[in-house]
Structure formats: C-alpha cells, structure tokens
Design brief:
Number of helices: 15
Distance between the termini: 54 Å
Order of helices and strands: HEHEHEHEEHEHEHHEHHHHHHH
Radius of gyration: 22 Å
Helix content: 40-55%
Oligomer: single chain
Shape: globular
Strand content: 5-15%
Structural class: alpha/beta
Number of strands: 8
Amino acid sequence: MVDAVTHALLALGLLTAIPVAFLVVQIGAALLPARRSVAIISTPCPRFVAVMPAHDEEAVIARSIASIMAQLPAAGHLLVVADNCSDDTARIASSAGAEVVIRQDTTRLGKGYALDHGIRALAADPPQVVIVVDADCEVAPGTLEFLAKRCVATGRPVQARYTMLAPPLPSSADKVSRLAWTIKTFVRPLGSARLGWPCQLMGSGMALPFALVTRLDLATGHLAEDQKFGAELALAGSSPLFCPDAQVVSQLPQGETGKRQQRTRWEHGHLAVIGQFFLPLIRRVVSKPSLHLLAFTLDLCIPPLTLLALSLMLIGGLNLSWFAATGAASPLVASSVVLAGFAGAIVVAWRRFGQEIISGRELAAGPAYCLLKIPSFIRFFIHRQVDWIRTER
C-alpha cells in the first residue's frame, strides 16, 4: 500500500513537470535574440476592417476609436458593433467617425455573438483581413497596418502584444495580476515566437484572414472565445503567430467587482477551453505529428499561473507529509524540483520583464495571493461561471 501511494504521488509530481518544463522553455527562449522577420514594410497594405464589439462602452469608446482613426490607412475601415447597448455607445462611435451596426438580442449574450454579427455585415464586400479590437483598448501607432500586412504575408492569424496597465493606486494583488498577465500574453508568446512556435489568440489585437474567420463558429457566448477560436484554427492547420511589434493597450479594472468578474471570466474560460480541446489536440498531434501543434497544445494547457502555483504547493505539502509519515523521499524530491523550476522561471521573467511592474518584496508575497484565489478555482468545479458577463469598469 505504501509503495502504491508513493508511486501515485511520484507520478502526480512528474505530471506537473510537463507544463512547468514548457513554461521554463518559453521564458528561457524569450531571452534569446529576435528572429529575422519577414520583410513586409514596403508591401502594399491589404484591405482590412477593424471590428470593435462594444457593449455599453460610452465612457471609453471615443478614446479607443481616436487611436484607430489616427492611423487608419486608405485600405482600412472601422466597424463598431453596438451590442445590446443601453447607453450612448452607438451615437458616440458614429460621431467619432466609425461605421456602426446595432445588434439587439438579449437571449444570446457574449462577445462571440457580436463578432459574428459584425462579420456577417461585411459579407457583401469582404476585406482581406479582419482585426478585432476591444472597445476599451487603445491601439499603438502603426499596429493595424503592420498586423494586416503580416496576416496577408503569412496567411495565418496574427496576434499583437496585449498590454494591460495597472489601475490608479494599484494594490499588491493588482501588481501580481499584472505580472501574471504580462507573462501569459507577452513573455510566453515571445519565447514561442523566438522558437518559431505559435501562440494563443488573446481577444484584442488579433488579425485573421477573412477566408479563415468565416469558417469559425463565432456565434458563441464562451467566456474565452479568443482561446476557443485559436484552438479551432490550430486544429484546422492555421495556428496563430505572435507579433510583438504591434500592440494594443488596456487597463485592469479599478473596482473590486470588476476585478473579480474579469479574473473569473479569464480563469474559468481558460480551464473550460483546456477541458474542451485537450483531447482533440492530442489526438491530432498523435495522428499527424507536428511540433508546432504540440507546442500550441502544451501552451494552451498551461493553467492560470495562480492555479499552477497552488497545485505545486499542494502537491509539495502532500509529499512532505507523506515523507514525514513513511520516509518515502522520491515524491518529495520530484515535487521540490518542479516547484523550484516554476519559481525560478517566474523570477527570471520578473527580473527581465517585470521589475517595473512589481517590487521583489511584493513578488515574494505572491504565494499568499495565490491562496486568496482558492475560492475562485473551487467554484469552477462546483459552480462554474458559464454566462458571459461584461466587466465593470
């Protein structure tokens, strides 16, 4: 019996080593020199439409539209989908220079439905590229044209860097959350890009060939519709590429309700996507071996960093208790090595990319922040959020 439990604990520790090892590879690769990119600067800009889903965004949408209109070339166009709005979003967007279509359907809620409505509105005169930009994001100069050119040059979906700024007077928890976001949406995809591997779609700043986007089942209320679309594209042989030279910028919510809503949607949505696509992706990797698809699968299946940290600490605690009770050291050694690898990778990412985000002292309190997230992850298993809820701003 002791041997059986020891072997089970050892196997569990080795299983957690897979996502941690891939995380270590990604963060290590992010430190490598940039790969030579395809020369696209001098190529003509393709016809593209920036599609902006917007639900009650009257407070922020004018600033977002202004950042787009200031860089919109002759080949570009902006379409705002005013989705189930009860405020002045549509009028403000139109006054700011955007084309606006209005969607009213209170039975089907979610960003995916708004995107589907926007794509259908473009069907009569389709562009070459669709670029999705959230209504609370500002677009860095040159981003749209760069994304459109890269998308056409590669024939693949392209994801811009999605930067999330801290709210005014951020708490330590805000800083930890922003560091985790930076690692997920910049450091890890940058490492994959350095190795020539694909990345995940991130919801805003994603450019897709129109011919590909029409094949997706956009009409969904999924909490993580971006990762769902990315997984479907990867299964179809068109996994996304990361483009760190293009950037969209947003800000973490300031109120506690908004923070909880946003984090719950991200975390529960990500876990749901893992559960939905892990086996189909693995089957495809086995039937048609592909390093790119394997890399995409491993990247997708790294859980939220707080959940991964909690799992490693829990397994380490179990193995420590088992060692104290039986003297079986192998599970404890394995889990300690994995936990040390995870902690070392996070420190390396912080030192290179996150020292302006959070101090070393605040980072050291990260495990306590992870403990505060336990109720959210418990709710995923006993009362998972499935309905899309707009984040309070």
